[in-house]
Design a protein that fits this description.
This protein is an alpha/beta fold and about 425 residues long. The protein folds into 2 domains: about 70 residues, Malonyl-CoA ACP transacylase, ACP-binding (Alpha-Beta Plaits, 2-Layer Sandwich), CATH 3.30.70.250; about 300 residues, Aminopeptidase. Strands 5-6-8-7-9-12-10-11 form an 8-stranded mixed beta sheet, sandwiched between helices. It has a 4-stranded antiparallel beta sheet with strand order 2-3-1-4, covered by helices on one side. β10, α10 and β11 form a beta-alpha-beta unit. α1 packs across α4 and α6 packs across α13. The chain is globular and about 60 Å long.
């Protein structure tokens, strides 16, 4: 795209957004910067997490065992730098202006959407995804089946699609966009659906036709719509709190599996990882749990798509002191995924380990609940591209490369699962 065309696109995006009210009503992040803050002690980590609960000035982007990625508002920058010195931690900037990334993403989406078609050169809205699903279901009525998990707090339908070419296949369940701002997840999920149905490549055909696929393109539908219409950086659900003016719960901390244990979620309704007033307080998560519980005998593998940081995470999330009985198998399967992805020309590197072991305690998550409570022995969270250059605002040009990596990785993962005996049918 030439500079002139890009600037025109950017101007048109602004005009389109402000046409109704004379101004853009979206939340803006002008001069908000993102820092990689490295820490050594629990006290330093606790201090950083406390900072992140001031949502007017800070947002937690990513957390690992020894570092946190923190978005800082321009008004809080001086105080942040002083606090960094007092706390004796190291902070390096890696995104100078978050709004610039959002503007670029909007412009690229605008240019790609000019012909009105659905595709993977842009990030699609929920309405666009659902309209496309309807077209897919109509075009492939024999091998596809739509299903509904339930309704969201704001009464949106949470939809899924099953792809099955023959009976007797092992089942793979894929959840995406449980965190609203992680747009690369639903883009990758829809790309995979399309490949499973339309690709003529022998490798893809074998993968598609030898498994039953249950795919939820967008689980957190309310939050996802909110990121498109109001706040690009929104993470949580949209249900109001009874005890706070802050809205929403981290849906990936809301399952009834070691809920709120070992500091694996926050009790503060304003925190990004707020676990909710009770397990399954969010209708989206209750709906997901009801569906998986009712159909768990069909699922050999459950995968949750997330971003960012290029990680493959297995149970447990609530503790790093214990490991699942089949942890060695889980690591073999994870290695197969990582090796396959790295073998592609992109050379993308994934690390792998348990959630609590490689990152931090995260209790009440999808994969732990599926493993602990539903006896699905192979469950993973896949944290997609990148490692921080763009973070959640991954340019649309990354959609297809990321999806290609997911395809080759999942194929290798399932091959290793079959070798280790995890794809045998649970019911006959």
């Amino acid at each position: 795209m030439s500079v002139n065309i890009f600037l025109v696109a950017l101007a048109l995006v602004g005009l389109a957004q402000g046409a109704s009210f004379g101004q853009d009503t979206r939340i803006r992040y002008d001069n908000h910067s993102v820092y990689k803050v490295r820490f050594e002690t629990k006290d330093q980590r606790d201090w950083l997490r406390k900072l992140a609960e001031d949502r007017d000035n800070f947002k937690l982007w990513h957390e690992a065992k020894d570092e946190i990625h923190l978005m800082v508002s321009p008004g809080a920058l001086d105080d942040f730098q002083k606090e960094v010195l007092k706390a004796n931690v190291t902070a390096d900037i890696f995104i100078k202006n978050v709004q610039e990334l959002i503007n670029t993403e909007k412009a690229e989406n605008f240019m790609a959407a000019r012909d009105g078609s659905f595709g993977w050169s842009k990030y699609n809205t929920l309405d666009e995804i659902y309209a496309w699903l309807d077209e897919i279901l109509a075009a492939y009525p024999v091998i596809t089946e739509g299903f509904v998990l339930g309704q969201s707090y704001e009464n949106r339908t949470i939809r899924g699609i099953k792809i099955s070419y023959k009976s007797g296949n092992p089942g793979v369940f894929i959840e995406s966009n449980i965190h609203a701002r992680e747009w690369i997840t639903s883009a990758t999920a829809t790309w995979l659906i399309n490949e499973f149905l339309t690709s003529t490549d022998d490798f893809v055909r074998e993968l598609a036709e030898s498994h039953d696929w249950y795919i939820i393109p967008v689980l957190n539908v309310d939050g996802f719509v909110y990121t498109h219409e109001k706040d690009r950086m929104w993470r949580k659900t949209r249900q109001p709190s009874d005890i706070s003016t802050c809205v929403g719960v981290d849906p990936n901390r809301n399952y009834d599996s070691h809920w709120m244990e070992n500091g694996g979620a926050s009790e503060n309704p304003c925190a990004e990882d707020y676990g909710g007033p009770a397990p399954f307080s969010e209708p989206e998560i209750q709906a997901m749990a009801n569906y998986v519980s009712a159909n768990k005998e069909k699922f050999n593998v459950l995968i949750a798509f997330h971003s960012y940081s290029q990680l493959l995470l297995s149970p447990y999330g609530h503790t790093s002191e214990e490991f699942p009985p089949n942890f060695e198998d889980q690591m073999e399967v994870a290695k197969a995924y990582a090796d396959a992805v790295e073998s592609l020309p992109y050379g993308t590197v994934y690390r792998y380990g348990s959630s609590a072991g490689i990152l931090y305690p995260a209790s009440g998550a999808t994969i732990d609940w599926a493993y602990n409570e539903q006896d699905i022995e192979i469950t993973y969270t896949i944290e997609f591209r990148d490692t921080g250059r763009y973070g959640f605002i991954l340019p649309p040009t990354h959609i297809v490369p990321n999806a290609e990596e997911a395809l080759i990785g999942i194929a290798a993962l399932l091959d290793k699962c079959e070798e280790l005996g995890y794809l045998e049918l649970k019911t006959l």
